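ingest -> validate -> predict -> emit
validate: passed (alphabet ok, no gaps, 197 aa)
predict: started
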Amino acid sequence: MDDKTSGSEAPEPSGARAKGPSRVTKDVYVVRHGHALPRDYWSGPDEDRPLTDRGRKEAEALAGRFDTRPLGSRSGKSGVSDLEPRPTVLLSSGAERCLATLAPLAVACGLAVETAGYLAEGSDAGEVLVRARELAAGGAVPVLCTHGDVIWWIIELLEKGGAFLPGPVDVKKGSIWVLETDAGAIGSARYIPPAKV
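emit:
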């Protein structure tokens, strides 16, 4: 993996972040696509490999992890405190399995899924982190869908940069990594395992 991350911009160390109770973190959600048809069972281009039934269920479950209620109906908590905030931007690798993973969330939020070349399989994780910080700084609540290799390289860069990664470190299909940014730096990240479907 080192050859993929060499020259990549590592995140600022967590010690570089300003301290104090008035800091507000902005989260960026990085999703690994759901289970797709195995490469051995697919004769077409890899980009076109579809989700399996399990992958489609993982995509539906992903949508259920976010507060997708209409913006006007958000008065009071009413049992949604465990949900992640409503996304404002959905970005994806151009691979069908990634686009399909975000499709139910897009429908629930009334958003389009935009493709981003920097989320393609084999992409530079450093660029993903730069873009994640830019999105967070712009006030968006972004959900990015990419591939396992890219997410592993993101984790490697975060660890090298001194980010705090509590709990398990894994990249299961259908899982989410929440990159927590503060003052332009990703100081911590947390793993949300995939729903059991």
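Residues 41 and 49 are 9 Å apart (CA to CA).
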